Amino acid sequence: MNHRDELILANLIANRVDTQPNLDVLTFIYIDSEGKIKEEVRSYQQLWDNAQRIAAGLNALGLKPGQSFALLMQNHPEVVESMIAASITGTIFVPIDPRVQGYKLKYMLEFSECHGVICADYALDNLYSVKSHLPSLNWVIQLDTGIQRSQNKLKLNIKEILDGEVPALPILSQDPDAPMQMLYTSGTTGDPKAILSSHRRFGDVVSLGTFLGMQENDRPYTGLSLTHANAQLLTLGVALKMGLRAVISRKFTKSRLWDITRQYGCTVFNLLGGMTTALFSEPAKPNDADNPVRYVLSAGMPTAVWDDFKQRFGVEIFEIYGAAEGGLTLNPLGLGPVGSIGKAPPTLEVRIVDEEDNECPRGTAGEIIFRNADGSAPKVTYFKNEEASHKKVSKGWLRMDDIGHMDEDNWLYFHYRKGGGIRRNGDFVNTAFVEKVVSENAQVSDVYVYGVPAASGAPGEKDIVAAIVAEPGIKFDADALFTACKDKLEANFVPTYLQLVDEIPKTASEKPQERFLLELFDTQSQRVFS
C-alpha cells in the first residue's frame, strides 16, 4: 500500500480508498418541493470513481495540466468530484457562485482563462447570456437537477460521463506549491481578484481539524457555499482529512437547520456574520436546545447575542477569524472572552499596527497583520495582479485590511473593515455592481451605494443603502425598484434600504460625500424605504 502525500487532494482520497473505501464520508442534502429532506451519499470509493470518470472527460475535452475550468453550481456531489478530478489531471478549478450573472460572470470566466464550465441547469441561462462574449470558452458540461429548466439544453451531460467505465488514471498533481484552484474575492473596490491557491494551502488548513475542536466522533454540517474557503476548507476538507461523516446542504436554510442537525446527528456547524442573527431571529421553540450540536464554529458572532445564543440552543461557541488569503485566530471552547476573535495559532504571529506600522498599545485599535511564526512572510498570489499581491503582503506581513485591537491578555477583537467596505453575511459587496443595476432602472437619475451598521448587530457587517435621485417628473416606486434589484443581483448585493434624496452631495472632483448621506438617513427617515 502506497502512502501518498496528502497535501494533494487526489492523494488524500486515494489513501482513504485504500483504508476505508466504504465510509459514507459525505451526505449532500436538499429540501424538495414538498419540504422533505432528500439526500445523496458519497463514500470515498464513490468520490474516487466519479472523479476518475470526470478526469477522463476533461482529458477527452482537451483540457491540459495548468489550464482552468469553472464550477457553476450549488453544493452538489459533483463539486467535490470535480475538485478531485482537477487534482488528478493537474488542472485548476474555479468555483463560482451560481447566482453570479451578467458582467461579473463574464469577467470571472474570462479573467481566470477558463476553457470550460461544469454548470447546473439552473445556472445555464445566466451562463449563456454571456457565453457569446467568451471565445476561449470551448465547452460546457450540464448537470441536470430538475430545479429549473433552461432553454439552453446541451448535448454534453455529466450523467453520461458518470455512467461510463472507471478508468485508471495517474495523479498528475505532484507539486504541493502548484495552483489547485482560483478563489475569487468579493471585489469591494473593483473587479474581484482571483486568489491563486495552492495544494499546500488546502492541505495545511484541512489538517487543522483538532485545532478547531473537532473529534473523531464528530459529524460536521454546513450550508455555506463550497465556492467559499470557509465551507470548502473547514467542513469539507477537514471531514475528508479526518474521516468525519459530514453533511452538506445545497444552500443555507435557517428554518430547517436544527431539523437537519437532529435528523443526521450533526455535532458542529459553521456560521458567518449575519447568519447568526438570522438563526436567532427565528421564533423561539420549546425544543430549541434539544439538538445534538456540541458547538458552533463561528466567524462573526455578535457579542450582543453570544451568551443568549449559547443558552437558547444549548451549544458552545468556537470563534475564528481569517481570510482565504491567510491569517487565522482561534477563540476555543471555554477559553477566551466573549466577543474576542481569539489568538493566533503557534504557526503564526499577529500584531495590531498603526498607519506607520508601529505596534499599537494594548486596547488601541489598528490594522490586523500576520506573518509566519519563524518571521518569514506569508505568500499570497493574485492571478495576473502582481501589484495587488505585493500590496497584500507588504514589508513581510500579510495585511488583512481589517481594524481591531488586542487586550492585555493578547486576545484579539475585530472592529470593522478598513476603508469602510460593506460586508454582508460574510461576503464583501462590490458597490459598483449594485450601482450599475440601480442606475439602469428608468426611475433613477443618480445613485450612490454605501453601508450603515447592520441592524443584526453582527460585528463588521453592514446593511446596504442605495441613495437615489429620481428622474424628474415621475412618481418614485420603491417596490418596483426593489423587485428589479432582486431580479438582477445576488441576494447579498440587494440593497436593504432605498434612500430618496434631491441630489448626491459631491466634492468638486465629483466624489460622493457619504457623511452627508448618513445625516439624511438619520434625519429624513420618511424618505428611506425598506
Please give a structural write-up.
- The chain has 530 residues and is α/β, with parallel strands linked by helices.
- Helices cover 28% and strands 26% of the residues.
Rough shape?
globular
How many E-type strands?
Answer: 25
Supply the CATH superfamily name of the largest domain.
ANL, N-terminal domain
Radius of gyration: 23 Å
The largest sheet has its strands arranged as 2-1-10-9-11-12-13-14
Secondary-structure-derived class: alpha/beta
User: Beta-strand level of the residues, as a percent range?
Assistant: 25-35%
Weakly predicted, low-confidence segments: none
Cα distance spanning the termini: 62 Å
CATH fold topology of the largest domain: Rossmann fold
State the helical fraction.
Answer: 25-40%
